[in-house]
Amino acid sequence: MQWTVHGERQIYTNPWVNLCLVDVEQPDGARWEYHVVRLRHLAVTVVVNDRREVLMMWRHRFVTDSWAWELPMGLVEADESPAEAAAREVLEETGWQPEAVKPLVYAEPANGITDSQHHIFRADGANYVGPPTEKNESDRIEWIPIDQIRGMIDRREVISSGSLVGLLYLLMDEAGR
């Protein structure tokens, strides 16, 4: 059953997030204003090397006051494609230049409240260029063996949805080989 949208108005906006009230009508005829968070789209990259390791960053997220491993990721800028953003973010956050990125999976992690799109890519290989230019992104950057990823997820050492979706898809892909 599809809801009908009658209109939308922004109640807060900045370069990162827009909070909107959307005038919606449900299939049963009920009509009300629904809060929607409009976000810029995200590019995530699973970089795998020839030793079957994944490039990951250990970082703190102040919003949830949590530490966890994450894949390189960041917002897609207005003048770039998701693939360009994916490669740029890997280089900025880790100092590794990924080889060609190719689409791995697409996700909308919370599409009941936000329109955020997660474009997740895979790069098979990367070349070290130098220290990351983004100094505030992570405490450690490491290559993690693929066979350790499942245990890390089970121990809640990987919790961000972009990282989880990319890594779980990678594990499914690896299992099918």
Structure description:
Helix content is 21%, strand content 44%. Helix 2 crosses helix 3. The protein has helices spanning 82-94, 146-154, 161-175, and strands at residues 4-13, 17-25, 31-39, 42-48, 53-61, 66-70, 73-75, 96-98, 101-107, 118-124, 126-128, 140-145. The protein is α+β, with helices and mostly antiparallel strands. It is elongated, with a radius of gyration of 18 Å. Strand 2 and strand 3 (31-39) form a beta hairpin.
In short:
With 177 residues, this protein is α+β, with helices and mostly antiparallel strands. It has helices at 82-94, 146-154, 161-175, and strands spanning 4-13, 17-25, 31-39, 42-48, 53-61, 66-70, 73-75, 96-98, 101-107, 118-124, 126-128, 140-145.
Fraction of residues in helix: 10-25%
Number of helices: 3
Apparent shape: elongated
Structural class: alpha+beta
- Percent strand: 35-45%
User: What is the oligomeric state here?
Assistant: single chain
Task: List the helices and strands in order.
Answer: EEEEEEEHEEEEEHH
* Distance between the ends: 39 Å
The beta-strand count equals: 12
Q: Mean pLDDT across all residues, rounded?
A: 94
- Low-pLDDT sequence parts: none
Largest sheet: 4 strands, mixed
